[in-house]
Amino acid sequence: MTVFKAFDAEDAAGIIAELKQLEGPLLPILNAFQARYGFVGEEAVRLVSAALNLSRAEVYGVVSFYHDYHQAPRGRHVLKVCRAEACQARGSDAVAEAVEKALGVTFGETTPDGQVTLEAVYCLGLCASGPSAMIDHGRLVARLTPARAEALVEEVML
Amino acid sequence: MTTRIFVPLDSAAVACGADEIADTLIREIARRGLDAVVVRNGSRGMAWLEPLVEVETIDGRVGYGPVEPDEAAALLDAGLLTGGRHSKRIGLVDEHPFLKNQTRLTFARCGITDPLSLDEYRAHGGLEGLARAIELGAEKTVAEVLESGLRGRGGAGFPTGIKWKTVADFSADRKYIVANADEGDSGTFADRMIMEGDPFCLLEGMAIAGLGTGATKGFVYLRSEYPVAIRVLGEAVEILRREKVLGPSVLGSGRAFDVEVRVGAGAYVCGEETALLDSLEGKRGQVRFKPPLPAHKGLFGKPTVINNVVTLASVPVILAKGGAFYKDFGMGRSRGTMPLQIAGNVKHGGLYEAAFGLTLGEIVDGIGGSTETGRPVRAVQVGGPLGAYFPRSLFDTPFDYEAFAAKDGLIGHAGIVVFDDSVDMMKQARFAFEFCAVESCGKCTPCRIGAVRGRETVEKVMRGERVAENLALVEDLCNTMKLGSLCALGGFTPYPVMSALTHFPEDFHGTPIREAAE
Predict the structure, then answer these.
(1) Was domain B425-507 assigned CATH 1.10.3720.10?
(2) Cα–Cα distance, B377 to B391 (Å, whole number)
(3) Which of B189, B195, B225 should we substitute to test contact with A (largest number of A Cβ atoms within 10 Å)?
(4) What angle do CA B465, B454, B483 make, to 5 degrees?
(5) In angstroms, what separates the C-alpha of B225 from chain A's closest C-alpha?
(6) Residue B48 forms beta bridges with which residues?
(7) CB of B336 within 8 A of CB of B150?
(8) Cβ of B452: how many Cβ atoms within 10 Å?
């Protein structure tokens, strides 16, 4: 289970210090922030821009560009359902509909209790075994049916 | 002797319970006091049989699949260790027709070896290419790749040897090799499979590229949607550093080359090479104007070879066996083999490596065994979300860069997505625009605005608003995008749209859309 850590400037500075030496360190730092805190907020942007001698606008531009980065905290879990063509051909529209119904939210939204954020993803590389989905950052599921998707939602809601 | 049982660590197997199966087998082997060990291999590429559990017997490797997690203990009861009978038993895996008829050059080891065992890698021909490259020297290494006729497997099909030679001939204090592992095309998974199933092969290819061009540093830009590949490739880099295959003196050659794995942040456009370079540098993944070419002014402004994963992973075998050997496979200007990825609504989906030249019909109906739903095949999208939809009437098109281009399509990264007759092609055309709108980097207007207007216009057609007029507008817009976009995202989005319109005009009728068949 993903438990995001509350954002902490000192902790964040530690991450920056550790990764700053890399060639092109901005994405590795932002990836680490997103994975650890669940979002990359204003304070994080300020810290990184100061440390890397970039303008806040430049860092903000990067944060807002990539789908993986979020500027505010979201659900404790993220459920990503593949909506790309290979999964479409294997019935992902019905799965997507079942998931929306079971969670009571549409794609891009978080359940009111803050438990699950539902997102679309365009391809998990499981294109011969779709429809597929990913929970948080690493649990993959394939061969989904609407019924199996509902069971999965129930599990994530716990 | 200890019996080896293979349970793939490949994402496609893991997503269907392979980790649970491995755990159960390990637990049961200990509990029953059996003399057996579980090896986590890559995938053989037969996705419909995953998780495919194999056991090494005196006759060869016997397979069982698709195994459900709760069947693992029963497999042992059935005498798994000696290849015992079970309803999921498929017999000798190497004799399976899907594997037997392939020409596995790039994927020769994938699914067979333990991906993280360097000993096994060497035992199966690994590092022979790198050793030969060291022996040949830089110039002859590049010449070998030129001779092979290898072209970029990411989709653009640019001759790899020419790219390498350009970088080799350009002097600079620092050069880079970048592996494009941002495999975002729906229907493709060859990069993922090789990184999970034979990661040393990619890294060996990168090291050869480094020695050939004078680059000392390599990056793998890996998409965040591939958690298993990120883990396996990261471990593989550590092993090669420890064993001094990578580092200050590659295989004791005195030449330095090291690799760093970088994870993307979810942007399809970063699969475009210049956007990828900007992303690696820590910027928004926006497409660059060309020239300057990455080969002259690439990563951090230095000469850079940027190749797709499969391209680089094909290099070790070319060096080991010679460019002429590789060139012998294929047709026309498409030399060597291509890992076809057969996906979507298909009975026998997976990865099938073969020489260029099979027809689309042979691939879809023959190898793929037609649709999984049992309904007729109506459309096949080749080359990812920017690839054209092919109707049955074009099934005689041979798999070849030029032959597909001649039919207003592209082979791209060789993803082949099969749709049955329940597909609504107007909906697919709308999706193509929508996808482009979501993923556009925003730098050029035809893509950024064209995609949004395109989606809106198709939606008007869907609602039955001035259908003929709006379809003409879509066609005009597609022309603008095709000719005016900076990269393939905006430039190729017209392929799926126009192919849907051209080959399936009956779907663009503007009355409520066809009900999807249940």
Answers:
(1) no
(2) 9
(3) B225
(4) 135
(5) 6
(6) none
(7) yes
(8) 15
Domains of chain A: 9-65 (no CATH), 77-157 (3.40.30.10)
Would the CB atoms of A122 and B439 count as touching at under 8 Å? yes
Of B279, B281, B349, the CB nearest to A128: B349
CA B501 – CA B345 distance, rounded (Å): 21
Locate all alpha helices (DSSP H) within B214-263, ordered by sequence: 227-242
Cβ contact, residue pair B188, A141, below 8 Å: no
Quote ipTM for the complex: 0.97
Tens-digit pLDDT profile for residues A37-96: 999 999 999 999 999 999 999 999 999 999 999 999 999 999 999 999 999 999 999 999
What is the enclosing helix (H) or strand (E) of B190?
helix B190-197
User: What would the two tokens of residue B331 be?
Assistant: 């047709």
Q: Cα(B487)–Cα(B274) distance, rounded to whole angstroms?
A: 9
Partner-chain contact A68 B183, CB within 8 Å: no
A-chain residues within 8 Å CB-CB of B177?
Answer: none
Q: Closest by alpha carbon to B447, among B491, B490, B493, B498?
A: B490
- How many angstroms separate the CA atoms of B383 and A50, rounded? 43
Would you identify the CATH topology of the domain B330-420? Ubiquitin-like (UB roll) (3.10.20)
Nearest chain A residue to B265 by CA: give it.
A68
Domain B118-327 has CATH 3.20.20.80: no
Consecutive 10-residue runs of chain B (518 residues): their mean pLDDT? 96 98 98 98 98 97 98 97 97 98 98 98 98 98 98 95 98 98 97 98 98 98 98 98 98 97 97 98 96 97 98 98 97 96 98 98 98 98 97 97 96 97 98 97 97 98 95 98 97 98 92 48
Dig out the tokens for B463 from the structure. Answer: 């609602």
CA distance B394 to chain A (A): 20
Which of B15, B184, B438 is opposite residue A142, by nearest beta carbon? B15
Question: Residue B264 in contact with residue B221, Cβ under 8 Å?
Answer: yes
Indicate the fold that domain B3-97 takes in CATH: Glutaredoxin (3.40.30)
User: What residues of chain B lie within 8 A of the CB of A128, using their CB?
Assistant: 12, 47-48, 189, 341-344, 346, 349-350
The domain limits of chain B are 3-97, 118-327, 330-420, 425-507
Interface of A with B (CB under 8 A): 22-28, 30-31, 34, 52, 61-62, 65-69, 84-90, 93, 121-130, 132, 134, 137-138, 140-143
Q: How far is it, in rounded angstroms, from Cα A106 to Cα A97?
A: 9
Question: Count of alpha carbons within 13 Å of B13, Cβ hemisphere only?
Answer: 33
The distance of A65 to chain B (nearest Cα, Å) reads 6
Rounded to an integer, what is the distance from CA B241 to the centroid of its chain? 26
Q: How close A146 gets to chain B, by Cα (Å)?
A: 13
